[in-house]
Write a structure and sequence with these properties.
Elements: E1 2-7, H1 21-36, E2 41-45, H2 69-80, E3 83-88, H3 97-103, E4 116-121, H4 129-142, E5 151-153, H5 156-159, H6 172-199
Parallel strand pairs: 1-2, 1-3, 3-4, 4-5
């Protein structure tokens, strides 16, 4: 199966230090897959790789031949994936605006009928837990329902290095078990939804949200 890890930060200023603290958290998720579940494909999606500046125009409002190549490419990757890992800091007790902005470019039908897992972090003691709760409704509206287990990383700058590896003195077994619990739930549900999609294509049963805002009630 294929999984996308979405990094929810485009910060280029401090504090916190380092500016893009979430990059190491996202890399830790990728490392966990590569170390423990290398039979699956995992890819890090960095919003800095996609030019979404200027007037907001979502991918679904273009004709495909007219859409920017980067948006077409990401839409294809989202559609091909079997599950998603959403990594976010906390802004005003809610999710990252950078992550929401990127995801909002795509119709919910690209994400639908697949699971997701919520990963939050902070430079302080709470690990972005309030943002994580806000993300449940957002991801449910996209149709990629989040699994029950979540990952919260407080003081991430002390726990992980720039490559997403544990800093010296951290309990490797503890963190492996903590990440593993949520990601194993993601894998279980991804296998179940993949099997059900193979058995019966849900997009043939319910209208997709592909272009017209009136389709927003579709999953």
């Amino acid at each position: 199966m294929k999984f996308l890890v979405f990094l929810g930060s485009v910060r280029d200023s401090s504090p916190p230090e380092p500016a893009r603290l979430g990059e190491r958290v996202a890399r830790a998720c990728v490392r966990h897959f590569e170390t423990n579940h290398d039979e699956h494909e995992v890819e890090l999606i960095d919003p800095l790789d996609f030019d979404t500046a200027g007037i907001f125009k979502p991918h679904f409002s273009y004709r495909r031949s007219e859409a920017p190549d980067a948006l077409n490419d990401l839409a294809d990757r989202i559609k091909a994936a079997d599950g998603y890992v959403m990594v976010s800091p906390e802004y005003n007790h809610s999710m990252s605006p950078a992550l929401a902005h990127l995801l909002n470019h795509f119709g919910s039908s690209l994400f639908a009928y697949k699971p997701s897992v919520i990963v939050s972090y902070s430079a302080g003691q709470w690990g972005g837990a309030r943002a994580a709760m806000a993300m449940r409704g957002f991801l449910s509206e996209l149709g990629c329902l989040p699994v029950s287990a979540m990952i919260h990383v407080p003081k991430a700058q002390e726990i992980l290095d720039g490559q997403g590896q544990l800093q010296k003195g951290q309990d490797a077994d503890h963190w492996a078990g903590y990440f593993g619990r949520a990601l194993l739930q993601l894998l279980w549900w991804a296998e179940a939804t993949q099997a059900q999609r193979d058995r019966q294509d849900p997009h043939s049963l319910i209208k997709d949200f592909t272009r017209d805002p009136s389709q927003r009630n579709a999953p």
